[in-house]
Amino acid sequence: MSAAAGPLAEIAALASWQRPLRAQFPIVAAHPGLSYLDSAATAQKPQAVLDAVLEYLTTSNANAGRGSYPWANATTALVRRARDRVGEFLGDPEPDRSSVYFTSGTSEGLRSVARDWLPGLLADGDEIVVPFGDHEANLSPWLEARGLLARQGVRVLVRELPYQASSGDYDPDALAALVGPRTRFVAATHVHHVYGADMNVDRIRAAVGPRVPICLDAAQSVGHLPVSVADLDVDFVVFSGHKAMALPGTGAVWARQRRGPVFRPGGWSGTPNTAGIVSLTAALDWLESAGTGRVERWTSALASRLTDALGRMPAYEVLGCRSSLAAASEVQRRTSIVTFRRRGIDARDLGFILFGHGFMVRSDGHCQAGRDEKEGSVRVSLHVHNTLEEVEALVAALASLQ
Ligand code: PLP
Questions:
Q1: 51-289 has which fold?
Q2: What pTM was computed for the model?
């Protein structure tokens, strides 16, 4: 969002762009009394994605890479096309030097990097740096890899990727001080799934130098804002297709084959999720024609509007970086996620109450690593189909509980 505009001006400027896009979500159109505010968990699907899946399943459904008849060939070509589409969508400037693997989502993608690639990089006494306060999916695979290597007599030191206490952003200076000659790998998150903050991962490359591979959990950025591997000097981008408007059980690992061993997921991979893969191409096409830059501006403006309103209600505490809460924050950009607590009301109860008003939100510990799941909060996560009217109605419902 431009610093001068402010959320309302931004929303007004984008309204005529957003309206026809909202109309393309059949589940939204079919439920006028409900507001889906849980897109960070999984995104709703536009008609174009549903059409692409139906067309595939009714014209050429077959297994990929296994037959030589026309449907099998068509399916194989669609999978190849989807692979190219992921690279294009991520702005890959050197597609010949990267590869794309399909997974069921970010969790499986990160686990595959940890299981199939990381051990080949590490020797006894090496160190890796991973986030202890992000999503559990971006911590447990690295700890499991350490355990596996330890059983083979290879001791790997796992260090915590440092955070700044004031903002929740990563701390590049503390990271630079922690990096040594045995640092072999860093795992990080692009956008925090609880605080909605852009984690400024470009500063990580600057802090660790040119040789250390970086794996990026992009579950909350791909599909929500422009993500370009031409700009981000990272080695893996792992994301969930289902959070980017593709079918459930869909995701991908993009791997830049430059630092460390070549990434080749091990074992027999079996039949791919062909309908999911077809839906991913359609979803990325849809998002690209909608414009991920405008999607980000729209959802950030709605998130700012909600955050500003919560800031005026003393009973509510918004989690995350205080300075990013201001509409024109220069410190840390906030995207489509706003997470908060209401003093005196348990988060799960609040989620239940909000559903009574027609709002579907997430209310628990959000799978955050190191957090007790009982220590809950309410997360509102927005997408392009959400409107100012929905946000204002949510604010009114929250105010009525004051
Ligand atoms: N990483 C982050 C930041 C997430 O928000 C999520 C899901 O919410 C995941 C990883 C796991 O994604 P999936 O459930 O698609 O594997």
A1: Aspartate Aminotransferase; domain 2 (3.40.640)
A2: 0.95
